[in-house]
Each structure stands twice: as structure tokens, then as C-alpha cells.
Design goal:
A hairpin with a 5-residue loop joins strand 1 and strand 2. The chain is 51% helix and 6% strand.
């Protein structure tokens, strides 16, 4: 299940995707209002996204945030991994944080593991194949 923190991050990034990449930085208060994200949470989320290299920040009176690269080069999967960690629902199928399940008798024949690996692969395929530009275009088409 997608956490509220991830939804907030996606909303903020989708809003920033509507702004010109070479334009003036967008103040946090505007991002919070437009993306409907509480400022308290947004501050922490933007720090994580900045550290991951998805956004740049500018300090000062005319400061704010903007995407650090083109919106078609940032996938929803990348954003969710920064906020949540691995996409896998169980640790034994994670590609970045593998851990064997403590109660599993035989990982090689575990039906749950095989099913969850397929879920992970399809989830990653869809999320990694959907850029901010794709998501924003679909959002506009639905409006």
C-alpha cells in the first residue's frame, strides 16, 4: 500500500513538473497549497527529494524548489523508492534490501515468494515506466 508520505511526494513532484525547469524556483508554501500537502511534512519530503537529486533548492526571499532534471527523466518508481524504500512487498524478493523470511522453510519452492516476485516485477515495470511527464499528461487528460 502506498503511504500518505509517498502520495504527498508524488503530488509535490507532479506540481513541480508543471513549472518551467529553467523558471524561478517555486516557494514551499505554494507547493504545499497547490499539491494539498501539509507544510510540516512537505519540508521533510522535499529534503529527501533534494538529497536524492530530483530537485534543486534556492535559499532566500526569491528561493524555492524546481526539478533538477527534465520531468520525462524522473519516474514514479524512483520517487517512491526514495520515500519508501524497496517496492517489494516481502523482503525475500527485494532487489535492494533482500532479507530471507524468518519463517520460510524453502525459499526456492515458496509459492508466496514466487507470486510476490511477479508482483514486484510488474509494479516496478509500471512505476519505472511512468515518468512525471507521463503522469502529468494523464492527469490533465482526466481533468
Amino acid at each position: 500500500m502506498l503511504t500518505q508520505r509517498s502520495r504527498y511526494a508524488l503530488r509535490a513532484m507532479l506540481f513541480l513538473a508543471t513549472r518551467p525547469i529553467d523558471g524561478a524556483p517555486t516557494p514551499m508554501t505554494r507547493i504545499a497549497a497547490e499539491a494539498n500537502v501539509p507544510r510540516k511534512f512537505l519540508e521533510l519530503i522535499l529534503a529527501d527529494l533534494r538529497e536524492a537529486g530530483f530537485i534543486d533548492s534556492t535559499r532566500g526571499k526569491m528561493g524555492g524548489y524546481r526539478l533538477s532534471r527534465a520531468k520525462h527523466l524522473i519516474s514514479l518508481g524512483e520517487i517512491i523508492r526514495v520515500i519508501e524504500g524497496p517496492l517489494a512487498l516481502v523482503p525475500c524478493v527485494s532487489r535492494t534490501a533482500y532479507r530471507p523470511c524468518a519463517d520460510c522453510r524453502d525459499e526456492a519452492s515458496c509459492a508466496i515468494r514466487h507470486a510476490m516476485a511477479r508482483v514486484r516485477d510488474e509494479t516496478a515495470r509500471i512505476l519505472d515506466g511512468t515518468s512525471l511527464a507521463d503522469a502529468a499528461a494523464r492527469d490533465l487528460a482526466a481533468a
